[in-house]
Automatic annotation (TrEMBL):
Enzyme type, top EC level: hydrolase
Active-site residues, Swiss-Prot/TrEMBL: 42, 126
HAMAP family linked to this entry: RNA_CPDase (MF_01940)
Catalysed reaction equations from the record: a 3'-end 2',3'-cyclophospho-ribonucleotide-RNA + H2O = a 3'-end 2'-phospho-ribonucleotide-RNA + H(+)
Function: Hydrolyzes RNA 2',3'-cyclic phosphodiester to an RNA 2'-phosphomonoester.
InterPro entries given in the database record: Cyclic_Pdiesterase (IPR009097), RNA_CPDase (IPR004175)
Similarity comment: Belongs to the 2H phosphoesterase superfamily. ThpR family.
Superkingdom: Bacteria
Keyword Secreted on entry: no
Protein name: RNA 2',3'-cyclic phosphodiesterase
Amino acid sequence: MSPDTHCPRLFYALWPDAATRAALAAWQARLEGKPVRADKLHLTLAFLGQRPASELPALLDILAHTPARPMPLLFDHASHFAQLALAWAALAQPSPALLDLRAACMQRLAEQGLAPRFEHDRFTPHVTLARQAPPPAIGDFAPITWLADELVLVESLKSSGDYRILASRKLS
């Protein structure tokens, strides 16, 4: 966590490996808008928002102890959030393992009294590829299979727009 940040913006995410990042970057080349930097590509499980630094130990404990195993995720098309002007990589079908991990994470947050107040019950797993983007053209996107095996707690540095991984764990 940055030393001058008393209430960092935090989120839990699945963090892709280099091969998955490269495949997602190939999709970005086919999209309009402002591409998300390859080192920032991720699948958000829970956006926590600004949290007091005093909550960090509990958030790290949740990261370390939420049960999860590596899971294959199959991205087969690009989609769009019109209100946000975001183009994103979409899953053919969210895997039960992914939905279970999200539910377990949200349950552990609730048990600790840390559940985000603005998280909706609806979860649309995706990887944002471009901002300020129009809807993607219909086309063939080579399917991407990602064996998601790294769960991270990330600080979003609002001033620079960068991300800092505060902690990570391999899923096993």
